[in-house]
Fold this protein.
Amino acid sequence: MPVPLRQDPGMEPFESRLLREIERRSEDLVRLTQDLVRIPTTNPPGNLYRRICEFLERRLAAAGFECRLIRAVGSPGDSETYPRWNILARRDGTSPGECVHFSSHTDVVEAGHGWTVDPFGGEVRDGRVYGRGACDMKGGLATSIIAAETFVSVCPEFSGSIEISGTADEETGGFGGVAFLAERGLFHPDRVQHVIIPEPLNKDRICLGHRGVWWAEIETKGRIAHGSMPFLGDSAIRHMGAVLEEMERYLYPLLAGRSTAMPVVPEGARQSTLNINSIHGGEAEPDAVHTGFPAACVADRCRIVIDRRFLIEEDIASVKSEVADMLERIRAKRPGFEYEIRDLWEITPVMTERDAPVVRSVASSIRRVMSRRPAYVISPGTYDQKHIDRIGRLSNCIAYGPGILDVAHQADEWVGIQDMVDSAKVMALTLSELLPRTGRAR
Ligand SMILES: [Zn+2]
């Protein structure tokens, strides 16, 4: 077991040299963020994954990382036109030890409308880098690269390993990205011990996890008839109306009354929530070229998709049964009420312990860099941590990175340059704490 060297008494502290070196590389950090924003990896459909992986490969190979490009063949969306490429880069220290992994997604959502700058121009203005993905999360990816590069150049002799991944498809579920890598054992606790996901959660906040998710489709059944004689049919839309009414009367107040120990932000999400994602009933919507009127029919089916977010205090079985029981109650008192309910997908809630090693280390680094106590938060929605937790079975994982979550996915998305520099310092200090030095620093 290598013994970490003590600070040379006459030498300036290693940490302050590390921080100064990050400071010195801030222009490089800005340029790297700009370069990443200028590769428009929009998803869907999943553009230019190969190009961004090759860009990252050149950059990280030059810093001594061994790089693997991995295509998620057969994952949803993967095709010859839109192949799902991921990069996994690893740099081993001079002796074995634990591995710290930075996991970023490379995809961005569409630009949309309302921009006052070029969404893929990477413009720098007023201390910010603008562009689609600047905040979510190419700024975070660039920040982790600068932190890792600086650490290995100031301290080439360390025990353990650093990994950086750039993964596909987080914005559409992560199945061609982190889930694919996790299924291949790449997030197994035998090879990776600490994971930091540099999602934009603010530079002084540590995100411990996320609420759970259950999506389901509820369909009510009816009987088609002429719209002028609706009494000869049975309207599936009216039956669905009864479902919506019962949700308003019973389910929404019930969910709003539930509280949680999860520090979810924003605070409005610190309870169970239910969104009705869509509703479709009766005749299909006409396509745009149709100029005629609809036909007179009683709706014989109506469907809603529900998006239920749940808390660590709830279990998925009771989340489902309270909806099933509600539907059964309606059936018992409403003549002709028939329904079907289908599960679409589900994710269990995740909350990493506050005394997990990666949490403690990032928290102490935030205190040292920013002289303030970190806030511990939980994300209202899920992100790649779900796959690392569930498939990888690795629970020592957090999201920590620069950027303000509220501007993610918006027009004129930006990331603050000082926020990136401060976060890079936190990440570099975290590396120096988790990966002990085995030799003299440069
Ligand atoms: Zn993101």
Notes: The chain has two domains: 14-210+351-434, 212-286+293-347. Residues 105, 136-137, 170, 199 surround zinc ion (CB under 6 Å). Residues 264 and 378 are 4 Å apart (CA to CA).
